[in-house]
Amino acid sequence: MTTKTGSAVDAAKSAIALHYNGYDTPTVAAKGYGALAEHIITQVKEQGGLIHEDKELAQYLDHLKQGDEIPEPVYRIVAELIAFSWLLNGKTPPGWEGLEGIDEHV
């Protein structure tokens, strides 16, 4: 299973697309500035990916090259974005049992 998530910053015209196969650490699928950033954003949208605008996250990931794994300090935020993207697209991770049976008073 593949998920692409884009992080875009309008002011700097930059974009970073992440790839997640469902098992390994997410990696940088594409990165660019200016017209290339716009192209990346368009491609992610056309593929049904989530576009998340976050200047700080984009700046933090800016030093990475295509194919690099995301650094551990951003695992949680990226995991939350991927999970949200999956749910928006009607996907669930392997073994996920849904929300049925969860005590809503916890």
TrEMBL record:
RNA-binding among keywords: no
Gene Ontology CC, one term: membrane
InterPro entries named among the record's database cross-references: T3SS_substrate_exporter, T3SS_substrate_exporter_C
Protein name: Flagellar biosynthesis protein FlhB
Record's signal peptide: none
One GO term (biological process): protein secretion
Keywords from the UniProt entry: Cell projection, Cilium, Flagellum
Keyword Iron included in the entry's annotation: no
Family label: Belongs to the type III secretion exporter family.
